[in-house]
Recover the amino acids of this structure.
């Protein structure tokens, strides 16, 4: 059955709530409205307003109370309405959600999932198209999950909700309506496993989230040039499956990290630095990074100049091959 | 026991009066209130009408532009015209407005070109006007954040001895954000000449006021900051004007900040992307339609002999012209130069930006070739 | 005009009474207040005394340990014994406390080993106790943040139908943080069984209350959340107990949250790292010394015949033993295994952690060799 | 004259306030108390409580009002009391301070300096020893300055206050009491210039902030092994002076990035990735990263196991030389 990522996520929430009474879903407008992207559609109708409910407009409040609910024994799955509105919750995420288990010597576990619709490409006004992953990846204590396709969205959200560790769950919103043939429920690899989504020999594209599809398209297009690109979908940024990446690069000799976020100090830097460390003797070219420019997210009419696309990926592949 | 933080004066004086201030009754009859004197000349009374009508017409045009694919999204003020025009009209030229994204009415009063506002919604650029032109800050999207800018601006004005007032607009939902709280508190502690103007339009997207707060009214929130809280009928432009005027005068005289709740209703969807049928009833909407701020005020003006069909048509004509001009400016407005993306990030950008500019230029050239 | 958010009931009912609730006068005479009945048996009355004395003695020991280089820093509760022991004593076993970093008194009442608290200040580990042992959350350092955990915990308890109450402790300074505001608001909106207990000790480090807020009192902040605000003499343990008891009972019965201000004074420096001579006078300190919470209560107990020298010495003896034990546990307490640093970050750590553990082990071995 | 970094910063604030009436200094406890580290000592006494003042306890309020004051025409220099207490201000910094100029097409400039005492090594309780730089480096619109020695602290703070762009100014608090012989006022290179603090030929240590001193010590110690280490002090993280770094690495053939923050997704990843890109053919070994472990900041008694020190730097140099 063709399932959109939005449907996959909605089904994952539904199935998780069905499977475990302790799962509660809350945030701004997630109740009657079903969320501005309808990811929580009909959950309130099905599970009642005690298990899926709207909150006052306060993101720190949402994450902070989720910590308290998790301490009690619930498993809150909270929605940040948009990427840019996660920032008010930054302190609760960084100082408490990520660190409470460690602080408590393991006596307090916080099985909280913070869902964040991420990234651009939907023609939105400012603050609605951010790629905030690098704000979280350097905070130990969080697991950062970033699916790129509907099946992973379903399976990894289920895993995230079952995770005893807190998870920041990044949903590539421009792919909410992308489809995949699926028979839900499905299982997939646990959090922390990357996947070679397309084998190839010319170079490795390491990517995640919205750029998985872009990279697969680039790989298709690259065939015209006679390039056979391998695409590694990280799926999880923390913990990072370095082995899968390094294995691939060891085979191809060339790596490009592709993400939607700005390149400077983006997560791609970590991947590039690691590949540089671990695959030094295999590299025939430097690890190149493909991403957006190092500027605030642009106005809607200019965003396509900013976002990495198939052409930018292929340009970089060409550059890599020139070494 | 006298302690720091003990009761100073009678705290009951801080409580807002039970009923919202209302100067116009349902039939457009005027009932002046001693505490909120009206100092408006006939020309002012007509100006209020004119701005409300213009705001409504531009708003409708904006919605149409969005439907035609010309704007990415738009946040309508339908029903909130009086709640915006009154307070904006109570400000003087040197005063400043710190708006949210829904303040087309306030913008018009301040002399901002509505097309400038719509450029933001179109996505031509992230904002469309120069705040210093009309002392109107950029529309702020992250809820509540602009209240702090207003507080800081007012702190600065006070420090500088300027007799100006900063007015921050935000919604009922925004009162829940930590930033709004901090703004009210900073303004109070620093006696900043600041007016916090809350349009309580009953909803934050789909979330009704009853899920937003348990305060008796939003005006009651003022008590916790030791500032006056006022409440007014947000669909009565004379009330919004008079109450705002009082708060503004007080701030200007050095009396410090205040919080005003204008009780109103958003008659349109939250934005053009929203589907209000999911969370509110036609009945409720109908009740509020009957309280239309423009209709009520029109009755009053006609009664007073300040408005006749000729004047009404004149205003409509002005509106038509404005709307046509705005439409003309927005429709198919060019997208701007992508290389401008690097222009404004820094006054002193690093060398890095040159590389990026070159890369984008190469991409543009490459795309041009293809 | 009836609108959503219109006045429900009489908002004046929300205003805290003008004077703080006080049951003991300066001479230790008891004056019961109808609204705040005391349900304490003689043993309870003695227990309050005992906890206050133990808290003070442990506190002094902690300061000494810091001076001796055994603790990195310590935040004293001197003068705030009644403001902590009363409310903590008003809780039942299933109830929870969400403390800040100054809550040694509350910790003692809950049965937390003071040494566990001091391990945090020593830096043996980031926290020293298991919160589930005595329903006492970890000390929270980022100001105001724990109020949200309390609100969430109480929301959960309500959802689960548990009859328990979450009490959050924080200071006057904390009332300025956005998180505290959001906590009060969430608790109110969700009718969460939560008590927000503010120890107004007049300062946030060096910043006096007058620079923190312009609210008539901190209790008045409750109005903006539609919850009751209470105010009590924080140096009167019977008042803190009775007022807390009322707030706790109310929450437990489903009446929702409340905010209590205990007016008190921090007689020590903010922490051992602080130099209060920079910002407050000896005179002020002297005035508050005269209001010592333990001295006043002792007079009362002696008057009532509940305390004599023998009992007093018994408590002192218990304190000496406790303090000796705490000192013994802390003094030169071993630093713990550095490899534990990787143990608790995740339930399911990535493979990365194995590498890091190996690296640290190598470093430790290397250092061993050198 | 021997000047500590704390004195240098205090003098810089003093001189800036003297030079320009529009400079105001505020934050928690910066008035009468002079700040918990006394960096603002006597400024209130000297300039009055209108130019140096305490605020309510609210960091978002501090940064948010600074934005408003800057819009008016002031030049606020605000203090975050400790690194870990910057997080409540994250939204104002990220969504407004960094982006308002760009949003306004350059009509609104925000000459705000956010001073943050950073890093560990002082035996503090939790949240007082964070290295938050990577939370800011990926946000375009901010300049990030990170001095390591008293002279730079003075000169760069003066430059930061004169900067029309907002600056996040990271002060390595464990070096507050380190001394340098200085005759203040001094001038130095503008923001954005790195400095070769010690020339060498064996390998390049790229560093900033608190680790400048550690790297210089490591370079001294390395002489015993016959290694001649070059130390590049970045001084500014954004904009990054890549040329100076790459020039150095081109000469030495080996690079190590040393910072106090955790390695994973730390700022060192950006430096390593860039050096990998720009100096590919010069590198005789992978760019290695030396930093703290990828864990929440440890308790005081264990922090020395966590923090990079001379030994950890030298181990890494040895590792680099083994390639
Ligand atoms: C910090 C933040 N969180 C969430 C949003 C998404 N959002 C946009 S408008 C809105 C509701 C605002 O309600 P209110 O303050 O009542 O203003 P209104 O839209 O009714 O004028 C929300 C949740 C946002 N813009 N900013
Ligand atoms: C978010 C945050 N900002 C700043 C600090 C630094 N700090 C520690 S205690 C304190 C004052 C707290 O005052 P108050 O809330 O009155 O509590 P008290 O210490 O008086 O008990 C400050 C500013 C902090 N811990 N957390
Ligand atoms: Mg609203
Ligand atoms: Mg205090």
């Amino acid at each position: 059955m063709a399932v959109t990522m939005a449907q996959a996520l909605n089904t994952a929430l539904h199935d998780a709530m069905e499977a475990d009474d302790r799962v509660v879903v809350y945030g701004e407008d997630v109740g009657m409205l079903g969320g501005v992207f309808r990811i929580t559609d009909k959950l309130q109708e099905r599970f009642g307003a005690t298990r899926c409910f709207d909150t006052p407009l306060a993101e720190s409040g949402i994450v902070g109370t989720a910590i308290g609910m998790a301490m009690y024994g619930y498993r809150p799955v909270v929605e940040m309405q948009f990427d840019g509105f996660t920032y008010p919750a930054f302190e609760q995420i960084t100082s408490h959600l990520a660190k409470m288990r460690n602080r408590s010597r393991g006596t307090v576990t916080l099985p909280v999932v913070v869902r964040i619709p991420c990234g651009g490409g939907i023609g939105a006004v400012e603050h609605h198209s951010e790629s905030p992953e690098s704000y979280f990846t350097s905070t130990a204590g969080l697991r950062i999950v970033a699916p790129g396709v509907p099946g992973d969205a379903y399976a990894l959200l289920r895993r995230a909700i079952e995770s005893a560790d807190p998870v920041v769950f990044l949903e590539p919103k421009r792919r909410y309506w992308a489809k995949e043939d699926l028979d839900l429920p499905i299982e997939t690899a646990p959090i922390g496993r990357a996947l070679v989504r397309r084998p190839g020999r010319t170079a490795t594209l390491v990517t995640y989230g919205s750029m998985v599809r872009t990279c697969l398209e680039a790989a298709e297009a690259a065939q015209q040039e006679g390039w056979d690109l391998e695409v590694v979908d990280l799926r999880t940024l923390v913990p990072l499956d370095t082995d899968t990446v390094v294995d691939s690069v060891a085979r191809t000799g060339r790596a490009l990290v592709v993400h939607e976020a700005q390149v400077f100090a983006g997560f791609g830097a970590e991947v590039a630095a690691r590949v540089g460390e671990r695959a030094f003797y295999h590299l025939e070219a430097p690890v190149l990074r493909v991403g957006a420019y190092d500027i605030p997210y642009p106005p809607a009419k200019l965003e396509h100049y900013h976002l990495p696309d198939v052409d930018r990926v292929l340009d970089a592949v060409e550059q890599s091959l020139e070494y | 026991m006298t302690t720091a933080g003990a009761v100073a004066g009678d705290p009951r004086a801080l409580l807002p009066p039970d009923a919202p201030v209302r100067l116009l009754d349902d039939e457009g009859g005027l009932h002046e209130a001693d505490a909120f004197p009206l100092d408006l000349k006939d020309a002012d009374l007509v100006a209020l009408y004119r701005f409300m009508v213009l705001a409504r017409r531009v708003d409708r045009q904006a919605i149409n532009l969005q439907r035609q694919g010309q704007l990415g999204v738009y946040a309508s003020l339908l029903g909130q015209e009086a709640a915006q025009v009154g307070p904006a009209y109570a400000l003087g030229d040197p005063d400043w407005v710190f708006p949210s994204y829904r303040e087309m009415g306030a913008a018009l009063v301040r002399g901002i070109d509505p097309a400038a506002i719509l450029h933001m919604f179109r996505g031509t650029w992230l904002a469309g006007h120069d705040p210093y032109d009309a002392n109107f800050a950029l529309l702020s999207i992250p809820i509540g954040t602009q209240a702090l800018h207003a507080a800081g601006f007012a702190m600065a004005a006070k420090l500088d001895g300027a007799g100006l007032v900063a007015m921050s607009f935000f919604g009922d939902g925004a009162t829940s954000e930590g930033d709004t709280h901090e703004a009210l508190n900073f303004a109070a502690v620093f006696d900043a000449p600041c007016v916090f103007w809350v349009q309580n339009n009953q909803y934050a997207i789909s979330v009704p006021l009853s899920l937003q707060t348990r305060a008796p009214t939003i005006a009651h929130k003022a008590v916790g900051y030791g500032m006056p809280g006022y409440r007014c009928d947000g669909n009565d432009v004379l009330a919004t004007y008079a109450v705002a005027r009082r708060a503004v005068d007080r701030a200007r005289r050095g009396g410090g900040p205040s919080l005003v709740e204008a009780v109103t209703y958003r008659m349109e969807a939250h934005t053009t992307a929203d589907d209000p049928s999911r969370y509110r009833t036609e009945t409720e909407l109908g009740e509020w339609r009957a309280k239309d701020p423009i209709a009520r005020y029109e009755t009053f003006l006609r009664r007073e002999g300040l408005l006749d069909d000729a004047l009404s048509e004149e205003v409509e004509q002005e509106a038509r012209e404005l709307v046509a001009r705005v439409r003309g400016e927005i429709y198919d407005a060019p997208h701007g130069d992508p290389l401008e993306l690097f222009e404004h990030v820094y006054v002193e950008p690093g060398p890095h930006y040159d590389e990026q500019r070159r890369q984008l230029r190469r991409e543009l050239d490459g795309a041009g070739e293809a």
